[in-house]
Amino acid sequence: MARTKEQILDLIQAAGVVGAGGAGFPTHVKLNSSPEYVIANCAECEPLIRSDKYLMEMHAEEIVDGMRAALEATGARYGVLAVKEKNHAAVDALERACADDPQINVHLLENYYPAGDEQQIIYEVTGRVIPVGQLPISVGCVVINAQTLRHVAQAVRGVPVTSRNVTVCGEVASPVTLEVPIGTAVDYLIELAGGSLLADPAVIIGGPLMGRVTFDIAHEFVTKTTNGVIVLPKDHPLIDKKNSDFDRQYRIARSACCQCNYCTLICPRSHLGLGVQPHKIMQALTLNRAEVLTDGLSALGCCNCGLCTYVGCNMGLTPNRFIYAVRADLLKKKVKTDKQPAPVNKMRDLVKAPTHRVIQRTGIAAYDVDVPFLSDHRPPAAVRIMLRQHIGAACVPTVARDDRVTCGQCIGAPPEGALGARVHASISGTVIAVTEDHIDIMDI
Question: 193 near 173, Cβ under 8 Å?
């Protein structure tokens, strides 16, 4: 039975589906468009993370069903599943799942970083480049993460978002990938991975390059966008680069940056003609050359992949943090650019950063091991559902302390008319706390 665009989008909205691989943009808003292509980001961009790998191997049919729903909602002509060729089992599963659907095909990607950047994926699939400051729809595309597509498939069956895949690795006894309820405590995940091998570790939430560092895991919980938990020593070089004092980095950069421009030469957005030039940002900040930032191009096109810092800079500096600061300031001032992309670098394929090289340069090779999927594990006895797991307004609780809730029940919704996404109970139990930030549920 045919469904209207509005019916599909209403089901996705009711299920609280958001972008599971990025900032959590509400999917019902993203799909309220008319692209030519819907592209599934199945690249599993960051090193060490295996959450999408197992998702594709085990739930390829649901991912393809989610793609079909997305195509039905948008009216797009083409559905493309972009996956790294190296993930043979995932490729086979996806190809089998879409074999009888001429509208959907699998596109193979090389094993480079950041293959999952939407600019890279769109160019690989269509040969198009999104102008700086514009969205993928400006070039006729919508990009959706593999985990998100599974959630879309569940949503059109009336099943809300209550769980997701997470990889737990690094300095743990038994690295694992597992599907857990939204709101599971990060320290409980580490326990399921055999426990930390360090008494006082640092933890990266997300991937090693683009994830954030926390030293307080007691207050960290799985959200709809959490794909990885990486336990590392506090003195690991990766932690230092992510978390070192910014003012100290600035002082070092003023004397150590030699303008070699390696950071720009390795920048994937620069090679797509988007004008990103990390070395000019360094020059502007350390030599007071603000005129190089006047059009905003050298910072606004950055995707914060971190290649300039972790692979490009031989002086141990952190260009990505300087770019992020400049970009945030430009966005705050609402600086925009109307410049179109320059021609793509003809040597682009020769200067892509192989993932294995990124792993070596970031000092995480020891953790690049086979991470099995753990299907049989104890569910948590309690969860904390954050009321903002998405771009937009925080949800308003629809339950109170001592209420009994069932798994899948809506417990929070964004204010009327505001951008956001609903949140649902991920386990059945009793509401034991309601704050402006979260709702706690315990299985009692």
Answer: yes
